[in-house]
Design brief:
Layout lengths: L2 H23 L17 E7 L2 E3 L2 E4 L3 E7 L22 E6 L3 E6 L7 E6 L1
Parallel strand pairs: 1-4, 3-7
Antiparallel strand pairs: 1-2, 4-5, 6-7
Length: 121
């Protein structure tokens, strides 16, 4: 096999692995209702506004999907050890379903002083 063949195979494998990882980070988007939630689940909303998460701390029950929506004119992210949104432009939203009880601290990777917490009971 030529070097180009090995390179093509390596890129293909990395692409598949990246797509598999990214699809797992944002939760499933299939079977969603028109408001972006999965039928039968509780949702909670966090606005990103004035360079802050509002509210900065929310408490939800296990199985809740939390939606962050960027209201600012600059991009923000929602990042923790468990989930990562990628850049959110104004009006864009990110969702994550919290199935496991615990405390999840998160921040904006672009603006690290922006911090928030989700408490799952």
């Amino acid at each position: 096999m030529s070097k180009n063949s090995y390179l093509t195979i390596a890129i293909s494998i990395l692409t598949v692995l990246s797509l598999a990882f990214l699809s797992g980070c944002g939760g499933s988007s299939s079977n969603n209702t028109t408001d972006g939630t999965t039928p039968g689940t509780q949702t909670d909303k966090v606005n990103i506004s004035n360079f802050a998460f509002e509210p900065s701390t929310i408490t939800v029950t296990a199985g809740t999907t939390v939606t962050w929506t960027n209201q600012d004119s600059v991009a923000h992210t929602v990042v923790s050890d468990t989930f990562k949104s990628g850049n959110l432009s104004q009006g864009q939203a990110f969702q994550f379903k919290f199935d496991t009880k615990g405390t999840y601290n998160y921040s904006c990777s672009i603006h690290p002083t922006m911090k928030g917490t989700v408490i799952v009971e």
